[in-house]
Amino acid sequence: MPRHPPVLSTEEDKQRSEETSFNAEVASHALSLRGRKLTVAIAFVAGTGFTLFGYDQGVMSALLTAGQFEKVFPQVIVDSSHPNHATLQSFVVAIYTSTVPSYHAELSPAAKRGALILIEGSLITFGVMISYWIDFALFWASGSSAQWRVPIALQIVLALAMVFGIGFLPESPRWLVKQNRNAEALAVISALEDKSPDNAEVQRTYHAIREAVMIEDFGASTDLGDKHTPQHLKRSPLRRLFVGGRSQNFRRVSLGVMNQCFQQITGINLITYYATILFQRLGLSDVTSRLIAAANGTEYFFASIIAIFIIDRIGRRKLMLFGAVGQCITMILLAVLGSVQGTGAQVTSSVLLFVFNSFFAIGWLGMTWLYPAEIVGLEIRAPANALSTASNWIFNFMVVMVTGPSFNNISWGTYIVFAALNAFIIPIVYFFFPETAGHMDVIFALAYNEGVSPVQVSLRKDVPLAGSPEADRILGIDAVDREVNTSGEKQ
Fold first, then answer.
1. Among 397, 371, 421, 130, which Cα is nearest to 254's?
2. I need a surface site. Which of 197, 356, 363, 408 has the fewest CB within 10 A?
3. What is each CA distance from 190 to 131, 200, 220, 313, 484, in whole angstroms?
4. pTM for the model
5. CA–CA separation, 285 vs 253, rounded Å?
6. Nearest to residue 273, comparing CAs of 387, 402, 101?
7. C-beta of residue 367 within 8 angstroms of C-beta of residue 121
8. Which domains does the chain have, with CATH numbers?
9. Which residue, among 478, 491, 438, has the nearest Cα to 211 in the 3D structure?
C-alpha cells in the first residue's frame, strides 16, 4: 500500500501559520543598528540631552557678573537673590529629564544599567564644565554682547544633535509590549543583545517583559497578581501611585521623589550656580575666580567618571551614604573656615569646594536619575518619574532662590544649614532606601509577604530572578496567568 504523509490537524496548522507570520513580522522590524553600536547610539542621544542640562545650569554662573549681561539685564542683583532665568529652555529640559532616564533604563541590560545611566550624570558635569570654559573664554569680549549671547546660543547645537539622533532609535520594548506590538518588541530586544530572536536569553528577556505587563493588566497596583483590584484603579495610572499592598507603589514613588529632593538639598547648586561668586567672596580677583570656577567644573566632571566604574559593584545605597557623609563633613569645614580670616583659610575653603563636588559627583550626581527609574514598577514608571523629576526642579528652584539671601544675611552660616541637611539624609537613606540593583517587584512583594523591611530583603542574596517560577509564586502569578501571558504571543 502507498504510504500517505501525516495530516496536520486544523489547530496545529493554524499554530504553525501563526508562528511563521509572527517570525516574518519580527524580521520585518529588524534594526540596522545592533549590539554595541545600538547601545552607544542610545547612550549618545541620552547623554546629549543631559549635557545640555548641565550646560544650561552652568552657563549662567559666570554670566551673572559679566559686564555686557548686566547692561542688558540691570535688574539682576546677584548678592540679594538669584535671577529668574527660568525660560522655555528650562521647561524643555524638565520634560526630557523626566523621560530620558526611564527610556535609557528600559533599553539597558540589567547588569550594565547602573553604569550606563550614571554616564548621563557624568555628562551633566561635562556640560557644566564646557559652559564654564566658554564663559571664561568670552569674558575677554567685554565690549560686545557676544560675551553673553554666544554662550546661550550654543545650546542650540546640543538640542539639534538630540533631535536628529532620536529619529534613529527604537521605542522601548516595554512600551511596545504595552501597545501589543510584540513582534517589534522582540526585534528590539534581539537588536539590543545582538542575538537572533529565538535565542534563549532574548526569549527570557522578552517573556519577563510580557509578564511584567501582564501583572499590570491584572491590576497589580494594590496587590500584585490580585485580579480583584477595583476597576477604577486599573484604569487610572495616577491613582495607582497612591496604593500599597504587595506592590507598595506609594512607598516606592515616595522614595523616588525623596531621592531627587535629597540631591538638591545637599547644596550642590550653591556651587554650580554661584561658583564664580563664591570664589570672589573668598577674596580672589575677577579673572582668577572665573579660572578656578572653570577648573572646579573640570574636576567635577572627572570625579563623576569614578562612579560609572563602581556603581554596579558597590551598589546604590553605599554610594549615596558615602556622598552624604562626605558632603556633611565638607560643609561643616566650610562653615568653620568661613568664620576665620586669612589667606590660609581662603585657600583651604577653595580646595573644599572641589572636595564637595567630588563627594557629590560620586554619590549623588547620576544616582537620582537611576534610582527613581529602578525603584518603581513598569505600570507606574512614567507618572512616577514625572513626579520625581518635578521634585528635583522644585527643590532646585528653592535652593537657588534662597542661597543668595542666605549668604547676604547669615554669611558662612549658610554652610551650617546645608551640613544639617546632609546629616539628615544619612539615616533616612540607611533605614529606608533599599538597594535597587535587584528585581524590585519581587523584593517589595517578598517584604510584604514576610512583614519585613524592603531594605533587609534587598540586601539578601536569595531573592529569585524575575520570570522564574519562584518569583512568579511570590508575585502571585499562577499557572493560568502564565498561560494567558504566553497565549497572546503570536499576534
1. 371
2. 408
3. 39, 11, 28, 27, 23
4. 0.78
5. 46
6. 402
7. yes
8. 35-169+248-432 (1.20.1250.20)
9. 478
